[in-house]
């Protein structure tokens, strides 16, 4: 694929990874991804912003074949899907300076084979003239590593946002034309990668909000030529208000738990509460993460294995705790044969959410009519809490 123009002498470069199905050996990529780099040619100097995953370095080098000089290699983020090709690029353009935030410099030196002298740090708000184009560096820490920054091209009002606003989506579209599809991929990306940092992202959104960018060019997925909708989506996702939604990750070994969670789902729907059920034996954890973005309550459903929750339920609880969704209430429904510490172990695993624990429903064997009435009582308690707290 050739470089593609997004504005006068501003080009998308990079690689579309149609086949990748897993990131960080953890995150499913049902729609592949892309690694976006950008070339900005000023009247005097040229800068390349970010690079590609080392596995796709050849693609970027081919695109750079006709580029006579690169004066600056700008590294927004030290994670290797953007920085891993820097040593190769530094060899290709030996006169180029690598520019990065002070924190990124340390991390790049830790991760890559680069000499300390190759990297120059830039301060928050510092500008760099390329002649008739000016780059402004804005430190945006913890989006999603501590060293992250973004760059604003002042004359063209383009924000190069690196992972922020990104989407794991392989598509031939340079711009985000299919808004519904990109929204879905961007929400998945936010849920899996950005959600744990939503409070600091809120501050960073305020920081970059005043720039009035007319284009946002992230490092994954399509470029936003009408960026208002993705900025608004992020504002909603990071806001403190959960939705009137209960997310139920569950695992059922002999149908008892399945009966309980399906009864719970029907009971919640009857009370006007939205529900999303995820059978952990077959679910895509990315979908679960997306549902957690809006969850007001999380109810884990689990069978008992030995003396505790099924490992898949524990995994879902660990994931939810790590992703830090804004859910305010948690509970457990489950079944056991002769005992166990399921509720304690799950509540402990979810402790980081600082959510109120609503009365769990643990039943011996298959649920009786009384047990299902207890599930109804849990649904009633959840509906009441959501209404009292104005979850919409
Ligand atoms: Fe796309 Fe955090 O790297």
CATH 4th-level superfamily of the largest domain: Ribonuclease Z/Hydroxyacylglutathione hydrolase-like
Number of strands: 21
Assign the CATH topology of the largest domain. Metallo-beta-lactamase, Chain A
Strand content: 25-35%
**Per CATH, which architecture of the largest domain?**
4-Layer Sandwich
Q: What separation lies between the terminal Cα atoms?
A: 45 Å
Write a structural description.
It is a single chain. 33% of the residues lie in helices and 26% in strands. It is an alpha/beta fold. The protein folds into 2 domains: 4-239, Ribonuclease Z/Hydroxyacylglutathione hydrolase-like (Metallo-beta-lactamase, Chain A, 4-Layer Sandwich), CATH 3.60.15.10; 245-388, 3-Layer(aba) Sandwich (Rossmann fold), CATH 3.40.50.360. It has a 7-stranded mixed beta sheet with strand order 1-2-5-6-7-8-9. Strands 15, 16, 17, 18, 19, 20 and 21 form a 7-stranded mixed beta sheet that branches. Helix 4 (102-111) links the parallel strand 8 (97-100) and strand 9 (119-121). Helix 5 packs parallel to helix 7 (228-238), helix 5 crosses helix 9 (285-292) and helix 6 (198-209) packs antiparallel against helix 7 (228-238). It is elongated. Bound molecules: MU-OXO-diiron. Residues 77, 79, 81-82, 144, 163, 219-220 line the site of MU-OXO-diiron. The site of MU-OXO-diiron has 8 residues, from helix 2.
What order do the helices and strands come in, and which of them pair?
Layout: E1 4-7, E2 10-17, E3 22-23, E4 27-28, E5 33-41, E6 46-49, H1 57-63, E7 72-74, H2 80-83, H3 86-92, E8 97-100, H4 102-111, E9 119-121, E10 127-129, E11 134-139, E12 149-153, E13 158-162, H5 179-194, H6 198-209, E14 215-218, H7 228-238, E15 245-251, H8 256-270, E16 274-279, H9 285-292, E17 297-305, E18 308-309, H10 311-323, E19 329-336, H11 342-349, E20 356-357, E21 361-364, H12 369-388
Parallel strand pairs: 6-7, 7-8, 8-9, 13-14, 15-16, 15-17, 17-19, 19-20, 19-21
Antiparallel strand pairs: 1-2, 2-5, 3-4, 5-6, 10-11, 11-12, 12-13, 17-18
Helix pairs in contact: 5-7, 5-9, 6-7, 8-12
């Amino acid at each position: 694929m050739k470089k593609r123009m997004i504005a006068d002498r501003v080009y998308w470069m990079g690689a579309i990874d149609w086949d990748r199905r897993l990131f960080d050996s953890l995150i499913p990529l049902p729609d592949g991804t892309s690694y976006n780099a950008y070339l900005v040619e000023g009247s005097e100097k040229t800068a390349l912003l970010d690079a590609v995953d080392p596995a796709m370095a050849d693609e970027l080098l081919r695109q750079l074949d006709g580029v006579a000089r690169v004066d600056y290699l700008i590294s927004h983020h030290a994670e290797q899907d953007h920085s891993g090709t820097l040593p190769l690029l530094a060899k290709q353009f030996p006169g180029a300076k690598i520019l990065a935030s002070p924190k990124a410099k340390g991390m790049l030196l830790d991760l890559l084979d680069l000499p300390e002298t190759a990297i120059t740090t830039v301060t928050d708000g510092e500008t760099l003239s390329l002649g008739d184009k000016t780059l402004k560096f804005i430190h945006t820490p913890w989006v999603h590593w501590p060293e992250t920054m973004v760059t604003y091209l002042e004359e063209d009002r383009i924000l190069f946002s690196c992972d922020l606003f990104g989407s794991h989506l392989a598509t031939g579209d340079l711009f985000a034309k299919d808004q519904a599809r990109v929204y879905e991929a961007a929400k998945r990306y936010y849920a899996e990668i950005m959600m744990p940092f939503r409070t600091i992202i809120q501050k960073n959104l305020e920081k970059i909000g005043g720039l009035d960018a007319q284009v946002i060019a992230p490092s994954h997925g399509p470029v936003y030529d009408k960026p208002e909708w993705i900025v608004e989506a992020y504002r909603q996702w990071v806001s403190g208000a959960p939705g009137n939604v209960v997310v139920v990750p569950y695992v059922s070994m002999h149908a008892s738990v399945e009966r309980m969670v399906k009864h719970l789902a029907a009971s919640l729907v009857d009370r006007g509460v939205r529900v999303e059920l995820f059978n952990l034996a077959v679910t895509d954890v990315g979908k679960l993460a997306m549902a957690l973005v809006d969850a007001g309550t999380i109810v884990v459903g689990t069978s008992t294995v030995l003396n505790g929750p099924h490992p898949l339920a524990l995994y879902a609880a660990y994931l939810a705790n790590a992703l830090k969704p804004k859910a305010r209430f948690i509970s457990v429904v489950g079944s056991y044969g002769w005992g166990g510490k399921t509720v304690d172990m799950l509540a402990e695993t979810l402790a980081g959410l600082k959510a109120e624990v609503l009365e769990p429903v643990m039943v011996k064997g298959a649920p009786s009519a009384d047990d299902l009435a207890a599930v109804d009582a849990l649904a009633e308690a959840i509906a009441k809490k959501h209404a009292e707290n104005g979850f919409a």
